[in-house]
Design a protein that fits this description.
Structural class: alpha+beta
Number of helices: 15
Oligomer: single chain
Bound molecules: zinc ion, manganese (II) ion
Number of strands: 17
Helix content: 25-40%
Number of domains: 3
Largest sheet: 10 strands, mixed
Distance between the termini: 78 Å
Shape: elongated
Length: 485
């Protein structure tokens, strides 16, 4: 019988914090600015320049720790991690070694965080991937390789960077996907980062090994560096796991190496062999004092937002939406806020959720817009639903009005008025139309009176036609029954 292999995966995620200025100097943090336009002696690494701590970055990392259930250290300190690389001219990175700001914690993997095609087949529902630690450091400059040269942009150098290290708790590419998705949601919820992987605001290194089922010792750990999409992480891990299983099952021993992922080719390739563990010769950063987090923790605790899992539960309880709907709504903080702004005053929050999840989201995806770019505010959508609910227009007309609202940004009331959509609820007028229909279709009347109740639908249709769709259908039904009775 073929041996089954168990993959073991641990992820190191670097996240750029959303501070206005850099970690140890006053230069602005701005994505997409002219290269080397946001620099100074500190972030260029000039000898003798002194770092000054950015307290906002410390607070944001502590907040991340609270959101992820970590233990936030009362005292943490910074160290120099020494190595040479052209994107780091001072030859050391200020990081944290033995006294990081956060310890432990975990990321809960909820069902919708998994890739869509894997949501029906979740091996460990409710799994929590434990964290080893979170530390704070400075980002390095960004190298861009041209044909015959390399350009270095120091705008990124000194950007506050959180490194979130997981325990090797992840056992499949799908779990890695769910971990990154869930983590990203929480970071965005807390406003600590936009965590946009395409912009390099969240980057991931994967450590992966395989071992035969039943073996206690882990297989050779291989690192895949610098992943910049969540789906890429899934594919790279799937490739790498298969590659390792094939080698191991043939008796080939794997070397400890670092590999890169080629998204176009869909494969990993060797970057470098790790001959020995790096010795970074860490030592305490002499230019920075240790940090006492107790000074700001009370403040930070007040900033802790309601997290996706808590929001999901509350939406189900307060608004009676399904677990699934609540999960989709809570997956995006802006979407959740939108729903809640309208739900607070809505008589039918469940109907509202349906409109948001079906009509609104599909319209937004068609026009490639985000919820914050949407022309229809939550309150305006609420108004439309109230108009439908009052019977002034029917649902079909409501959809037309909604499309118009999205296109023009006009209010529902204005569009209903403009298009003359308002349903005729004037009893006299409807009664006259009903009488017309009865007079014009004696056969249907006869059938109805003979007991064929469905004939009334035919007459109802005639009245709707006569009113050009404006008559209130419920009212038409009532009047017909009365006139025929
Ligand atoms: Zn600077
Ligand atoms: Mn790092």
């Amino acid at each position: 019988m073929a041996t089954r292999y168990i993959p073991t995966i641990g992820l190191e995620v670097h996240v750029q914090l959303k501070t206005r200025s850099k970690m140890f100097c006053g230069c602005p943090v701005e994505y997409g600015a002219e290269p080397n336009s946001h620099t100074c002696p500190v972030c260029l690494g000039y000898p003798g320049a002194l770092p000054v701590m950015n307290e906002t970055a410390l607070r944001m990392t502590a907040l991340t720790g609270l959101m992820l259930n970590c233990k936030v250290a009362e005292i943490c300190k910074f160290d120099r991690k020494n190595y040479f690389y052209p994107d780091m001219p001072k030859n050391y990175q200020i990081s944290q070694y033995d006294q990081p700001i956060c310890d432990g914690g975990g990321v809960p993997l909820h069902d919708l965080a998994y890739p869509k095609d894997a949501q029906k087949n979740i091996l460990e529902p409710g799994k929590v991937v434990r964290l080893t630690r979170i530390h704070l450091e400075e980002d390095v400059a960004k190298s861009t390789h041209f044909e015959n040269s390399t350009g270095i942009d120091f705008n990124r150098a000194g950007t506050p960077l959180m490194e979130i290290v997981s325990e090797p708790d992840i056992n499949s590419p799908e779990e890695a996907f769910a971990y990154l998705t869930a983590l990203q949601q929480i970071l965005i919820y807390g406003g600590v980062s936009d965590a946009d992987m395409e912009k390099g605001q969240m980057r991931c290194d994967c450590n992966v090994s395989v071992r035969p089922e039943g073996a206690t010792e882990l297989g050779m750990k291989i690192e895949i560096k610098n992943m910049n999409t969540i789906s890429g992480v899934r594919r790279a891990l799937a490739f790498e796991i298969e590659r390792q299983i094939e080698a191991v099952s043939k008796g080939i021993s794997l070397a400890q190496e670092t590999r890169r992922w080629d998204d176009t080719l869909g494969q990993t390739s060797l970057m470098r062999i790790k001959e020995s563990a790096h010795d970074y010769r860490y030592f305490p950063e002499p230019d920075l004092l240790p940090v006492d987090t107790r000074v700001f923790m009370e403040d930070v605790r007040k900033q802790r937002p309601e997290l996706p899992a808590e929001k999901r539960e509350r939406f189900v309880k307060n608004y009676g939406v399904t677990d699934y709907d609540a999960a989709v709504l809570a997956s995006d903080r802006a979407l959740a806020d939108y729903f809640e702004a309208a739900a607070r005053t809505s008589a039918k929050p469940k109907t509202l959720a349906n409109w948001i999840l079906n009509d609104l989201l599909s319209a937004l995806s068609e026009s490639a817009q985000t919820i914050s770019e949407c022309k229809v505010s939550a309150l305006e959508l609420g108004e439309l639903l109230a108009i439908i609910d009052a019977g002034s227009i029917n649902t079909r007309q409501g959809k037309e009005v909604f499309a118009e609202m999205l296109a023009t940004g006009k209010s529902a009331a204005a569009i209903v008025e403009e298009k003359g959509l308002k349903q005729e609820s004037d009893l006299g007028a409807i009664e006259a139309l009903c009488q017309n229909a009865i007079d014009a279709h004696p056969k249907a009347v006869e059938e109805y009176r003979a007991g064929k109740m469905a004939s009334i639908n035919f007459l109802k249709g005639q009245v709707m036609k006569l009113s050009q769709g404006k008559a209130n259908p419920a009212l038409v039904g009532d009047i017909l029954v009365r006139l025929l009775g």
